[in-house]
Specification:
With 599 residues, the protein is α/β, with parallel strands linked by helices. It folds into three domains: 126 residues, Nucleotidyltransferase, domain 5, CATH 3.30.420.40; 150 residues, Nucleotidyltransferase, domain 5 (2-Layer Sandwich); 210 residues, Carbamoyltransferase, C-terminal domain (DHBP synthase, Alpha-Beta Complex), CATH 3.90.870.20. It contains 20 helices and 22 strands. The strands form five sheets. It has an eight-stranded mixed beta sheet, sandwiched between helices. The N terminus and C terminus are likely disordered.
Amino acid sequence: MDAPYDGQLPHGLDSVSRRRQMNVLGISCYYHDSAAALVDESTIRFAIQEERLSRRKHDARFPSLAIGRALESARIRVSDLDAIVFYEDPQQKLHRLWDQVLDGWPDSRRLFFEDIPYFYRYKFPIDEQLRKHLGYHGKVEFCDHHRSHAASAFFTSPFERAVVVTIDGVGEYDTAAIHLGEGNRLRKVRWIRFPHSLGLFYSVFTDYLGFEVNEGEYKVMGLAPYGKPLHRDKILGPVIQLVDDGAFTLNTEFFQFYGKERHYSDKLVKHLGIPPRTAGALMLQDHMDLAASVQSVLETALVGMVAPLLSEFDTQNFCFAGGVALNCTANAEIIRRLGIRSHIHPAAGDAGGALGAALQAVARKNEGAASKRFALSAYLGMNYPEAVAKATFTINKIPFAKSENVAFKIAQLLADGKVVAIVNGRDEWGPRALGARSILADPRAAAMKDHVNAKIKFREEFRPFAPVVKREYFGEYFETLGMSETPFMLYTHKANRPDDIAAVVHVDGTSRVQTVAREQNEYLYDILDEFHKITGVPVLLNTSFNLRGEPIVSSPADALRTFESSGIDCLAIGDLVVQKKTPTDDTAAVAPSELSAKC
């Protein structure tokens, strides 16, 4: 297991290799999705979630591994940092926790005996944690939780001026915040406070439907198209009330946010007349209809919030972040109904707050200067040299071949019905697989969806898969929503040719699309291009390279372990290819050197 980074440069690096410039490290931790992000005055240099390195899903611990890799990638010591910025204000959050204890006593006993002691031990003394884990004695700054989210979206957007909406469960006190972004400045203009929360509203119903909170919300989104919003009137009005100016309130009689086992009350069960589903239990049509109803209410609330803001501030530019911004169906509905220009941060949840906190610190320093925007790549994490992959295969006695035309090799396997996992370049930033750590398959037959769900991903059969399409064919195959590209897979688009790509079209006729151009990801684009030449279809099924309950792989060792634990047929790490023997293949295993001419 990797040891926490000790602040020293890797062997062979010295002070000559370091450029003195402003370096700011943003971190998020101690709730869920810990992450670290390193930026300088003009560039996002590195960003990764701790889970990718620790192999612990939604790892909330101090991001020692992520910080170490960030410093290594930039060839700097911890002492070279001008500031470390934490993604929220622990003092304000502690005040809110105490308010909850006092307001909810005696139901808030668990909060008092469990959550607050944990908070005092870890999150409150964050400067002490930085000294303990990193030996850091420099400047520590704190950024409001929702401002961190807002900064992650606005300062990576193409807009000089925009309405910036951030919505999640809860930050310090806020559950939603509206900022007006202008130049290098964010000005908070509206907010909604706990316990009134769209994020918690959706999470409570995630729990009600038998899925894990902070993990299964996207399952509710995927389940919703199988139902009809028949229970919408039981929810909109009695459970959540919407106000004409875009605000909302929850009827707290239906919720119990102090509970450990569940966050909904018996009154909600009685009101809905639908039995809560336990994990793994039979999915009833009522549950599907409830998912559809909750999704419909969320979309109505979001459109109702955004529309008056755009009118008030006279702009069609919209930025979005916070966990709710990962609801691709709702994102598309906002664009479809309002016809606006949008930018959504791909790591919209708490991980993205680490990057936003760092960007806000740089923006504050440059507030009076010319407007600055940070180019946002989909690929900001680890990159492993070919030698590491070769060593991984050799140590594990895995025969591999170096392909002279790996794109054609993979495309031919895909066209033959094989499932191929790829590892190339730097890890993706955010929860979506975008062609750096992906599983690819032929999208043409609907049966492929069932095969990948059952034999590869080991997950629920109702879960859809996303397509990746060559950017120049985006409009031919999908509704564009007025966009020329969608590189981060953050919206659902109606499929124009659903019969041609049945494996990646959901039951409602939509797909969560990723476009790719050669300049964005040459490796992935070339595979698509070769597949297009072979089949006439410029689209592939693209899903994350992981098994159910695990983080997306990062290293060659992670990739090999996942490959061997699933029904994936082929693994390609850069130009190195490993294929599993099929039941009809009775040829003897050969050494890597002997395989080189066969792929």
